[in-house]
Amino acid sequence: MSKLFIFLGPPGAGKGTQASQIAKNFNLAHISTGEMLREHVTNQTELGKKAKNLLDEGLLVPDDLVINMLVERLSHTDCKNGAILDGFPRTLGQAKSLQNISDDFPINKVFVFEADNEELIKRILLRGEVSGRSDDTEESIKVRLDVYNSDTAPLVNYYQEQQLVTTINAIGEIEDIYNAIALHFNNL
Length: 188
Ligand code: AMP
Fold this sequence. Notes:
Order of helices and strands: EHEHHHEHEHHHEH
Distance between the termini: 14 Å
Radius of gyration: 16 Å
Strand content: 5-15%
Helix content: 55-70%
Bound molecules: adenosine monophosphate
Number of strands: 5
Shape: globular
């Protein structure tokens, strides 16, 4: 049985940075649906062609496309011991589809990253300068934060009702935030 850990939070909260470190140190797969979609765009696959404009504008890719992509990814052998989902689910529909595969992939914990908008915008603009990500622009950031609040934030309640949520203060030193998250993995 492969445990799932969900990293939930607004863009720029540091989910990806933390997920990659935790995954490496606790022998879990790191699955970033955003990263997978960007690869599809780069490789100009059918999915990439459908997703490109949505990504650039900061809008969500339709649930069915992302869900199929994720379920396929979970069948890879590196997920045997479990996986961190970074950026999935982002809608109630996606969360419900995860529930459908919960016999094989039960959700162990949902880490909710918290940071204020001002800090998030600052971080994303800085990241954009370094990474050149086409959606790290001021225009797209505003849309992504709105989409987070309308479509994704309700998932916090959804998972709170299942007593799966652990809140992480995502402001501070990367190492301190890492330690706060790692505590929960040390105790597994
Ligand atoms: P991220 O790297 O997680 O910030 O994701 C970048 C972009 O990829 C998002 O703004 C969406 O356009 C798309 N994306 C990533 N994950 C999902 C998802 N679970 N559902 C829909 N769209 C997604």
